[in-house]
Write a structure and sequence with these properties.
- It contains 29 helices and 21 strands.
- The longest helix is centred in the first third of the chain and has 60 residues, at about 235-295.
- An eight-stranded mixed beta barrel has the order 13-14-16-17-18-19-20-21, surrounded by five helices.
- Residues about 1-10 have low confidence and may be disordered.
- About 60% of the residues lie in helices and about 15% in strands.
Length: about 850
């Protein structure tokens, strides 16, 4: 590029030099192309002036001779001699040398010379003609006065006649050298006017015109005689010829000078433009140099052979080579060796075909460090399309590559553990399935979930939880081979993908079990988390895969199902996926869809089971929900209540139970038989956690206008496992409304006695699992007796559920429990049957 600039500067200098040289030549021509020399012109004009003066003197002398009829011609001879000398100077003098080329002037000069030769021959003729002329001139004034007196002054004829007389006198004075055409015109005009005059006037006018005609005729005849005698040449014509010649020369000189001046101005303008363009180019070059030097991208300029001609400071900064070290060298010295010869062949083929190439390439700095750069190479061509240079611009993309790698890492790796995330795991799983199809070897997925991880997070904080997850990640990685994948899906869930296991499923399962057991042992070891010593266990679900027999989603779901089976098996164990479990899951999914329809179509119904005292007197009932399926018939609560809890449908179902129970209490208030009966309803943990649960209970009570003390809410012990403080607040608010509480399934959960004394309970309900074997099992007897004794000491009422035999009732009564519920007194039944039972008691 800089070479092109130099060539352009060189061409402009030549053009400017040529323009200046042309301007100098024009100036020289301008000086040379001068008009006639002023001194010569003055000399010639003096000749003409003297000639005209001599001619005037000659005319005057001839006229004097003409009017005086004098015979003294000495003066005329002297004038003739003087005129001859003037004629000689006009022909031979130094001042008139360049007039020899003017034909018209030479002709006039020849006339003068001829007249001088014959002047002596015309003297006698002049005397004769002069006499006649004298007579006519003497008569002319009188004749004109007579005609003018005959016509009023100011008329056209008067004016024309004055003009005619003036012209004829002028002709006479000039010796016949006047303008004859004007005279003839004036004469003709007077003659035309005279044709319209009366005869008497016409005679006088004709007489005057005859004298005028004689004067004119003799004057016209006299020029030859006068010229011969007085050298009365046509000096005016001779001077006019010179003036024409002089004017032409002056005009031509002026024209040439204007042309030369314009040409000079044009050339000077061109020179100015060249200078301004050079200045502009200089500024552009300065700007380009500034851009070249200050560009953040490295720039290299080479010739067609690849020799480096120029580099900018950014190139020096990136590569570490100085200008002196790199100039004249080939850019190949920067190659890192990462690109193959085929890569460079393809690159130069693109440059040859399109004149351009760009892409990522790895080069080596002076210190040997390799770095990535984004390189653009452009071929520079001249006006004929021939390549003259190559310009390479590059940018060090080390930081952007690092950022790209970081973005890729964030996209495919978990930030906390550094393990692959779900996206990368699924991608690798697709590849593993394809690899398994080719090799015929089995693979396995292990789904790992940490047991009770939430408790650690809640009690020790998320920071400790994160430390645990990081240590778990390291421990799992230490248990697998280098080619296996350990991924974190999120939270406390990890997945291990094992590849290249045995071709036989049994052996592959054994290999998988071995890895899983290593993980179990490793994760069961104590953890040192900051200042805390902790223990944690995992639940692991495993499934095998080979070929494309299962999709990625199915495999993930199978491993997840197996992990939940491990949870159900008591945690801290391994379970392989069983197809029967899949069938159960599918059945569960169908049941969930039908449960949604049941809520929408109101397929639920409350059944009522009676509660009695030791005298078998009715105290109330427990409202138990039943699902009346249109195809399945009666669906057990054990089949759908857990599903409703997990799916969240327990909330609308629980609301329906509460509203129906309150409506039933409203109905019972209308009868003396049932107006004092209590009605118990079960409430799930999710309902208790609702922020609006208290408001919903209050709304149901107020809407039905019932006695709230007849409504008994039975939360299970699971309600006390989470958010106990919030639960206590909620129960106290409901207690303030008048609602009563019975703790359901007491003894089966993990409730703390510390919290039990703080709960606003009215009753404990002994679970049927303890009641079932109290007739034969001493442990159950001890537990039931303990529960009854504790309730009495806490001032709580006690009721036993699941009472089916008289022996069970008697033991309970002897132990101090006087309220019962069970098949011994009545099964759960629809409201119509329940009310009929009440009437029969």
């Amino acid at each position: 590029m800089r070479m092109f600039r130099k060539f352009e500067q060189f061409s402009d200098l030549h053009r400017m030099g040529a323009a200046i040289f042309s301007a100098i030549l024009l100036v020289v021509f301008f000086v040379i192309t001068q008009p006639i020399n002023q001194q010569r012109h003055n000399t010639l004009m003096s000749y003409f002036s003297q000639l005209q003066s001599d001619q005037a003197n000659l005319v005057e002398t001839v006229l004097e001779l003409n009017f005086s009829l004098s015979n003294n011609y000495d003066k005329v001879n002297a004038i003739f001699e003087h005129i001859r000398e003037a004629a000689r100077l006009l022909r031979e003098g130094n001042a008139s040398g360049y007039l020899n080329k003017d034909t018209k002037f030479q002709e006039k000069l020849q006339l003068l010379e001829k007249r001088l030769e014959i002047q002596s021959e015309a003297l006698e003729q002049f005397k004769s003609s002069n006499a006649v002329l004298k007579n006519s001139l003497i008569y002319l004034p009188n004749a004109r006065d007579e005609v003018e007196r005959a016509f009023p002054t100011g008329t056209v004829l008067h004016e024309q006649l004055d003009d005619l007389v003036e012209k004829v006198i002028l002709i006479r004075i000039k010796g016949g050298l006047g303008d004859q055409a004007e005279f003839n015109t004036a004469f003709a005009n007077v003659q035309t006017v005279s044709l319209h005059l009366p005869a008497k006037f016409r005679e006088k006018l004709d007489e005057l015109l005859n004298h005028i005609r004689n004067i004119n005729r003799i004057s016209m005849e006299m020029p030859g005689l006068v010229s011969q005698l007085s050298s009365n040449i046509e000096s005016a014509d001779l001077a006019e010829a010179y003036r024409i010649y002089y004017d032409n020369q002056q005009q031509r000189a002026a024209t040439y000078r204007v042309f030369l001046l314009l040409a000079t101005l044009i050339l000077l303008t061109y020179v100015f433009q060249v200078v301004m363009r050079q200045r502009h180019q200089a500024n552009q070059l300065k700007l380009a140099a500034s851009v070249f030097d200050s560009a953040s991208d490295g720039i290299t300029i080479t010739d067609t052979q690849g020799s480096i001609l120029q580099v900018n400071p950014a190139f020096v900064a990136v590569t570490g080579y100085t200008r002196e070290e790199i100039l004249g060298k080939n850019p190949r010295m920067l190659q890192s060796g990462r690109q193959t010869p085929e890569f460079y062949e393809k690159m130069w083929r693109s440059i040859k075909d399109t004149g351009h190439w760009q892409g990522e390439i790895w080069n080596r700095r002076k210190n040997g460090a390799e770095y990535p750069e984004w390189l653009t190479i452009t071929a520079v061509k001249d006006d004929h399309g021939l390549i003259t240079n190559y310009v390479g611009t590059f940018r060090d993309i080390t930081l952007s590559k690092a950022a790209e790698d970081e973005i890729k890492h964030l996209a495919f790796y978990d930030t906390l553990s550094g393990l692959p995330n779900r996206r990368l795991l699924l991608d690798r799983l697709h590849h593993a399935l394809a690899s398994s199809a080719r090799s015929g070897r089995e693979g396995a997925l292990l789904f790992i979930d940490l047991d009770n991880f939430k408790t650690i997070n809640d009690t020790l904080g998320h920071y400790i939880g994160d430390l645990l997850l990081q240590q778990v990640s390291h421990r799992i990685e230490s248990c697998v081979r280098e080619g296996d994948t350990v991924a974190r899906l999120g939270g406390d869930e990890f997945v291990v993908m094992l590849e290249d296991l045995s071709e036989h499923s049994f052996e592959a399962a054994a290999q998988t079990k071995l890895v899983a057991e290593k993980i179990l042992v490793s994760l069961n070891s104590p953890y040192k988390l900051a200042e805390h010593d902790c223990r944690n266990t995992p639940s692991i679900g495993a499934t095998l895969f080979s070929n494309h027999q299962q999709s990625v989603d199915v495999l993930m779901r199978q491993a997840d199902i197996a992990m939940y089976q491990a949870k159900k098996a008591g945690r801290n164990t391994l379970r392989f996926f069983d197809q029967k479990m899949q069938a159960s899951i599918n059945e569960r999914a169908v049941l969930e869809r039908e449960l949604n329809l049941a809520v929408e179509n109101k397929q639920f119904q409350l059944y009522y089971q009676i509660q009695v005292d030791s005298d078998r007197k009715s105290l109330g009932a427990e409202a138990l929900i039943r699902w009346i399926h249109p195809e399945r018939g009666m669906v057990s609560p054990a089949a759908f209540i857990p599903l409703a809890e997990e799916s969240g449908l327990i909330l609308p179902i629980g609301q329906m139970v509460l509203d129906t129970a309150c409506a039933q209490l409203k109905a019972w208030q209308e009868s003396e038989l049932t107006e004092k009966l209590t009605l118990s309803v079960n409430v799930s943990a999710k309902q208790f956690q609702e922020a609006a649960f208290v408001d919903k209970v209050r709304a149901a009570v107020e809407f039905n206008q019932i006695n709230p003390m007849l409504l008994k809410i039975e939360p299970t012990e699971s309600v006390l496992l989470e958010n106990i403080e919030d639960t206590i607040v909620t129960m106290n608010k409901l207690k303030a409304l008048g609602v009563r509480f019975a703790l359901d399934d007491f003894g089966t959960g993990f409730s703390s006695l510390q919290y039990l004394k703080r709960l606003p309970l009215d009753q404990l309900k002994i679970d049927q699992s303890f009641v079932r074997d109290i007739s034969t099992d001493s442990s159950d007897k001890a537990i039931v007796s303990t529960i009854i004794g504790m309730a009495q000491r806490l001032g709580l009422d006690v009721i036993a559920e699941g009472v089916e035999t008289e022996e069970q009732r008697q033991f309970l009564q002897l132990s101090g429990c006087n309220k019962y519920q069970g098949y011994l007194f009545g099964k759960p039944m629809p409201i119509e049957q329940f009310e009929a039972q009440l009437k029969s008691c």
